UniProtKB/TrEMBL annotation:
InterPro entries reported for this sequence: DUF7036
Limits of the DUF7036 domain: 132-223, 256-345
Keyword vocabulary terms for this entry: Membrane, Transmembrane, Transmembrane helix
Pfam family, one: DUF7036
Name under which the protein is recorded: DUF7036 domain-containing protein
Transmembrane segments: 83-107
Species this chain originates from: Brassica campestris
Keyword Membrane: yes
Amino acid sequence: MMMMFHPFASSASAQRWLSQLLSLSKNTQKHTESFSDTLAMVNQLKEKKEQVQRQQNLDPENPATESSRIFFCGSFCSALSRLFSLTCVIFLVLSFATLLSAIFWLFPPRRSLPRHHADHIVHLNASVQACFRLHKPASKVISHIGKLEKDIFSSLDLRNHTKVTVLSLHQPGASNFTEVKFGVLPVLTHHTLRKDSLTSLRSSFANLFAQRSSLNLTKSTFGKPASFQVLKFPGGITVDPLGLEPVSGLLTLIFSFTLDVSLSEIQHKVDLLKNQLEFVLNLELFESFRVVLTNHKGSTVSPPVTVKGCVVSAMTTMESHIQQRSNNLAQAPAKNFGLDNSVFGEVRNVTFTAYPEGKVLGSDSVLALTPTS
């Protein structure tokens, strides 16, 4: 039996197939569009994430970035701190070593220097004491104390009933000289020095202090002594700092005052004292003056000092001039008696007596200015 192909049946199948194909194409297109939308969303999210990351990298307030910076700075500072700590330690060690070397160089360790001290009882019994300096180390002097005492005794021309005792030998610090302190005592214990011995000794001490004489010591052993000072003398010590010749003529003025300085301090400024006194006394060409200094404690290194002087005229002085001088001196205490108080200190206890008609200068007037025993 022969089958016949119906044209309408074939057309219907083709239409169904075409319809299914179109439906499949539409579904595919939908899926494609859906996938494209999804991909676009993914790309947008990715771009947004990258944008956020870029903003975070640029944002100074971003905690993550700040943490990274803090971590980096902390690591750097820690390394730098360790480096500087090591450098500082090395620097401090070197500085301390240099400082220690300088201290030992400037102040070397004190070594035990040889010294000599007489018995305490001997110190108390020595009513006359003086000192001077030898430019020799104590180690070279201490073994010759006996010879030193004999040389001092001979230089002072003492009597046989007296003796010289070295009370102490002392070498100050790192110096190269020796301070010698000695005393003059009676040979017999519980006795005092005689009056004639004190008179002779006072004159010798005054000349030694004023450098008009010197101790005659063995030069090869002790060298040349210097800086003679009187420390203790009964009845006081009086010196003539200007070394003037004895004056003669008519006495027109006697004056005195007190300075709160030592004889030693004035001795170094004696020329200034002379010039300032000449100015305040307003001397005429035919007038001269003499002055002596006394420390009643018998010391040239301790204050105070009494200044006593006189004005002598080689001819009759006009009473008007003497009166004018008296008026000036009456105002002098307010002006420190014409002396520079920054050098000599304050002038105290000023007294003066004027003789308008002049007074014959007798032995009693001269003795009033010289040392007494």
